[in-house]
Amino acid sequence: MDFVRLFHAENPIAGPVEPRVHEVRDEIHRTGTYTHTPGELAFGAQVAWRNSSRCIGRLYWHSLRVRDRRWVNTAEGVAAECVNHLREAAPRRRIRPTITVFAPDRPGLPGPRIWNEQLIRYAGYAMDDGSVVGDPRYVNFTTMVRKLGWLGGPGTPFDVLPLLVSAGDGQPQMFTMPGDAVLEVPLSHPTHPWFEELGLRWHAVPAISNMCLEIGGIHYRAAPFNGWYMGTEIGARNFADTDRYDLMPVVAHHLGLDTRSDRSLWRDQALLEINVAVLHSFEQAGVTMTDHHTESGRFLAHLKREEKAGRVCPADWSWIVPPMSGSTTPVFHRYYDEAELSPNFAHHPDSLERGLGQGTVT
Ligand code: ARG
Questions:
Q1: I want to staple 288 with a disulfide (CB 3.0 to 4.6 A). Which of 55, 217, 228, 244 is the partner?
Q2: How many angstroms does the Cα of residue 252 sit away from the middle of ligand 1?
Q3: Residues involved in catalysis
């Protein structure tokens, strides 16, 4: 009822709410659940984004493209539509925020489920000497899909993992990701030619696929969504974290920095150059990407807009503030409202997921 009322309050064009309230009540009495109209689904998905406290990029929540695929409930169907999602999300390298919504849970009939944290992620191969080739975050996931029969990729640090999808209560099934669905950007630096020789690359589209979309009490367990990247996600986390690609020492070495003392700030200098390279490379490739200064400004514009609309905008300071140069961005210098609003995206509290070692943060 809260959701239906919210939908009608924010969308006067949908007409009076009471007839819809009766209709939903009636369907729930008859079937134990109810079906969102296409308009409710699209609005629900957009507001789930608007309510995502950890996301700095919410200014454009209303432009989210919603691909309604609620009739798709087989593993094959879900995998094929995930591939289509990726193809449609970046036409001519311009990234469009997009969500694909698959069949919801129904009484006694769970919807499909995607086990990958994102549609595109790189394998992490654990070597005998304890080192990892690829993304250490996905060592457990990689080990598991290999046990399920994945032969592994060519063995580069950037092998794209297969999709793991289950339908209803069924066993997860594996699907390889076709190359043309994976837009990638090779990394180079505007003034350091050696940077290119590090052989780094990253995928253009971040598409979270393991969160449950909850709208008006209905759970869409498979609802992968993407935005575009903010440079620091790649440059200050994926490439820099010591439990990820751990590139600061490598880059510091090439920069000729003194890595013996923390106080030389060699990490900070290396971090900066990695991030310069990320933004430069995406720009060169013509692929949509934002930087943390621009995005911080946009987020404050979003807060202003929401306030004007008479809404609370919950935000989590520890996620909103960028992972480098925090105090140089305006989002650092204030506090935010905290609240859990619905619709929203939630992590599945799931044992297999923990077994997959992907943690709960993205
Ligand atoms: N931080 C995640 C990554 O590096 C992506 C999370 C979503 N980001 C986004 N810009 N929509 O892959």
A1: 228
A2: 25
A3: 55, 58, 228, 233
Atom of ligand 1 nearest to the CA of 229: 10
- Best residue for ligand 1 mutational test, from 229, 275, 290, 298 (most atoms within 8 Å of Cβ): 229
Picking from 356, 357, 45, the residue whose alpha carbon sits closest to that of residue 224 is: 45
Task: List, for residues 230-278, the tens digit of each pLDDT value.
Answer: 999 999 999 999 999 999 999 999 999 999 999 999 999 999 999 999 9
Classify residue 44: in a domain, yes or no.
Answer: yes
| CA neighbor of 231 nearest in space, from 194, 298, 282 | 282
Q: What pairs with residue 208 in β-bridges?
A: 118, 225
Q: Is position 139 within any domain?
A: yes
In a domain, 175, yes or no: yes
The phi, psi pair for 186, rounded to 5°, reads -75, 145
Q: Ligand 1 centroid to 208 CA: how many Å?
A: 8
Task: Tell me which residue range forms the domain holding 310.
Answer: 35-321+343-361
Instruction: Find the helix packing angle between 248-255 and 266-285, rounded to 10°.
Output: 100
How many domains is the chain built from? 1
Does 7 fall in a domain?
no
* Closest atom of ligand 1 relative to the 97 alpha carbon: 11
pLDDT tens-digit series, residues 6-61: 999 999 999 999 999 999 999 999 999 999 999 999 999 999 999 999 999 999 99
